[in-house]
Amino acid sequence: MTARNSSFDEQLVLHELKHFLRGLSQPGAFDYSNPLHAFQGHHFHDALRCASEILGYQTTVSMEGYRSLYNAKRVKPEILEKVLIEKKGAANIFEWQDKVLMKKFPAEIAPRIGQLRHNGKNRFKTDLDEVVHQKLFRILDNYLDSGVADWQFPVRGRGFLDSMREVESKSYISIFRTARARNLLLYAGATISDLLAILVGDQSLFEQYLFDQQFAHREWSGLVSSLENNVHHLPDGRTISLHDLIVFELLLEIDALDHRLKSHWQPLATGLTERQEPLFAPLPADERSEVLTIWQEAVEWSYYDQVLSKFYRPTRDDLTYGKPDQIRIEPSEAYADDKGENLCILGTKFFARNLALPLNASRHAYDFAVDRDGDMLGNILEKVVPSCGAANIGNFFAEASLHDNSTVSRIPMRLLCVIEQFPETALKVIRRCTEAYPWFLNEWAHLVVIEPQSHGIQVFKNGKMIAYKADRQLENATD
Amino acid sequence: MSLTDFHFDGITIAYLLVGVIVTLLTVWYGRRNLREKGQSSRFYYTLLLFCAGYSITIFSTELKILLAGWEIMGFASFLLIVVDRNLTPGNKLKAFFIYRLGDVGLLLAMWASHHLWRENPTLVSLLLVMTASAQSSQLPFSSWLPQAIENSFTTSGILLATLMVQMGVFLLLRSMPFWEHQPSVRLLIALLGAVAAAMAAGFARLQTSLKRRVAYASMAQAGLIFLEVAAGFKSLALAHVAANAMLRAYQLVKSQGTGNGKHPVQQRAKTWEDRLPIKLQYTLYLIYMKEWGLYSRLSKYLKA
pLDDT tens-digit profile of B23-63? Predict the structure, then answer.
């Protein structure tokens, strides 16, 4: 993040806004660019926490949702225990078990984003979003329309703000309800900071205000900021930029306040008693987010464990039972999006032959014997991991399924890559991968390596390979 | 109940035919589209309820039975709007409130026709006109239809945009004896229809969503039909109802096939609006884009 001081740099703030809005181009539908892009350098769970507690995304299943999954036996107790030991140590396991299963946490935490404008709402006694959004969206919708409406926006070949200026100056009726906003648009050539000075007053709050404002309609802002770079997507030589959108929205807000409060109002900052934390101040993990992290890990590994246990075939069993029967992994629609592939398997045909894999697995033929130094493996990983991984991360933002607490039908999960290779070779290969390695290192995707001869399973964690015991293996050991 | 309890005339036949065709179309279309959404059985039960209400209404001999059918139909169409069970406050409830308002008009009309008919036929007529106009999404209740259609499945939208909207016209046709000798009421109906047609036709041209466009187009046609009814052209009105219903159903079915994945057009052909003087053009565009201010004003009062 860039250094922040009290003065307001318009270009810098616009640049940062675009950075955070990337990947939000369409409501509900993410392209393969990563929606958590802005937090990419972070460890996965930190990024999720920031996205949820700073920017207000709903990124995980709710606490009750996880607990009901546990009660429905879709999170296995032994896996939860394993995660607890790994994260908190064997000594604290009972204390944390209690927290995970029982402790009451406040239902929702108000994200940092939106709080400044919430203060404004209380002070002005006006919900600006409610007053402004409808009008703004309608105008944007008509301006950006590409061929559905019969009667197109009448100004051609100009940018958004210029078009508005043109219409406003020549029409017999005004877009606005009061004179000041109209004059600011037509004659003053007001910049963003001029308008913010009227609305907010204090320079140190400008950036926060803009983030609040734009994230109140992040889909629109995301669309605009992506259209800014793809000019040819708009017909009739129209162009739009985030700058234009912000100026116009600020004008509408000034208009709304003038209309409502008859110009008897002071900038937002004058009545502000307590300053909240800056938007991007460091955000330490609290107990609630740690518990959520534990749950997410437990959910994912409960599912992965089921998959991995199929790969494990003790030689002893082979002798007694001969060929193992074809094993079916239970349909995974309960776990994950049907469309997304959250399993990626790289191995020989023999390796995957005995597995009736769920539909959401992508299989790549890969022969470890041919690929001794792992060049082929590296190429595949570089291609597959960023695209498949991002699709899976996108599921963490598929809002509809997460908001609904009553049915936890689809649980977002990270990608699991299963590779048939010698662990040392695999480790060397992924360290060479410039694209894929950060995904594994920050745990944005999981990597499991299966040793071709012994079928021993190893998991990549914290830059090392660690032996993994599949659940079935544990059962066998205790028998 | 004997066969003579049914009313069977040209109006009934026309509405019956349109109803049968549109319902079958909806069933056929719903079979393709609702299954994957997992709402199909709920949808079909609601559809049956709707058909029952629709039939009772069009076959009714007297106002009481008509009211019974009307109630069932109103309730069923509300269920059709919320068939996805995604009830956001405000938008979908609006349709419900407007139906209720129409029902109250009908109820009062029924009561007034028993007690006040001799003294005040105008009041009864006015109440009937109010109900019809609420049902057909005419002024001043014009905004429920586009919002209801936009927020519901296309399958429900077909029924709303075709059958539901035309029931207001049906009520006017059925109650013609009440008001046809009162020039003032006829003038009012004509005026309401004309203004709504002028308004909705412009809105329809500006809409960027196909569903909303169909809704407004349907509303504009209903306005014209009001005009025809007021002028006494019964058969023309019936033909218009049928033609409009078919066209809207076709447009909605088609809209789903192509989706919104249109390729952006780089340069569009000019429309007749482009030939207007520039000041007038901008002014008209702004007026229609603001939907005459009706939309925001109404949603202020009808926020649930």
Answer: 998 888 888 777 666 677 888 888 899 999 999 999 988 88
H/E run at residue B165: helix B165-174
| pLDDT for residue A416 is more than 50 | yes
Integer Cα distance of B242 and B16 in angstroms = 10
Helix, strand or coil for residue B213?
Answer: helix
Contacts of B22 (CB under 8 A, 6+ apart): B158, B159, B162, B163, B245, B246, B249
Give me the half-sphere count of Cα atoms (radius 13 Å) on the Cβ side of residue B269: 3
Close Cβ partners of A399 (under 8 Å, ≥ 6 residues apart):
A28, A58
Q: How far apart are CA B276 and CA A154, in angstroms?
A: 11
For residues A303 and A80, is the Cβ–Cβ distance under 8 A?
A: no
What CA–CA distance (Å, rounded) separates B51 from B250? 20
Identity of the amino acid at A199? L
CB contact under 8 A, A172 and B206: no
B300 touches chain A (CB under 8 A): no
Q: How far is CA B281 from the centre of its chain?
A: 29
C-alpha triplet A318, A320, A323: angle, nearest 5°: 45
Q: Are B242 and B18 in contact (CB under 8 A)?
A: yes
Residues B123, B228, B26: CA angle, nearest 5 degrees: 100
pTM for the model stands at 0.77
- The separation between CA B57 and the C-alpha centre of its own chain, rounded to angstroms, equals 15
Question: How far is A457 from A447, CA to CA, in rounded Å?
Answer: 11
How far is the C-alpha of A443 from the C-alpha of A42, rounded, in Å?
Answer: 10
Half-sphere exposure of A160 (CA within 13 A, CB side): 25
Handedness of CA B226, B228, B232, B236 (dihedral sign): negative
pLDDT tens digits along B61-99: 888 888 888 889 888 888 888 776 665 555 666 777 777
pLDDT digits (tens, 9 = 90+) for B283-302: 888 888 877 666 555 555 55
| Nearest CB to A154 within list B202, B213, B285 | B285
Instruction: Output the DSSP codes for B26-72.
Output: HHHHHHHHTGGGT-HHHHHHHHHHHHHHHHHHHH-SSHHHHHHHHHH
- SS3 category, A73: coil
Q: How close does chain B come to A155, measured CA to CA in Å?
A: 9
The structure tokens 């309820």 sit at: B49
Cβ-contact A152, A145 below 8 angstroms = yes
- Contact at 8 Å (CB) between A446 and A414? yes
Position B81: which residue type?
I
Across B10-22, average pLDDT: 90
Two tokens, residue B227: 């005009």
Q: Where are chain B's structural domains?
A: 3-266
A-chain residues near B297 (CB < 8 A): none
| Residue A417 three-state SS | strand
Listed in sequence order, the residues at least 6 apart from B30 whose beta carbon sits closer than 8 Å to its beta carbon are B40, B43, B44, B47, B155
Spell out which residues of chain B touch residue A140, defining contact as CB-CB under 8 Å. Answer: none
Q: What is the identity of the amino acid at A450?
A: I
Going by C-alpha positions, the residue among A339, A341, A389, A343 that lies closest to residue A33 is: A389
DSSP class of A423: H
How far apart CA A115 and CA A143 sit, in angstroms, is 30
- Find the residue in B nearest to A154 (Cα): B282
- Judging contacts by C-beta atoms under 8 Å, the chain A residues touching residue B287 are 173
Structure tokens at A267: 């900038």
Cβ within 8 Å, pair A149-B207: yes
Instruction: Report the 10 Å Cβ neighbour count for A475.
Output: 11
**φ and ψ at residue B146, rounded to 5 degrees:** -60, -40
Three-point CA angle A184, A189, A193, nearest 5°: 85
Which helix (H) or strand (E) element contains residue A427?
A: helix A423-432
Residue of A nearest to B273 (CA): A151
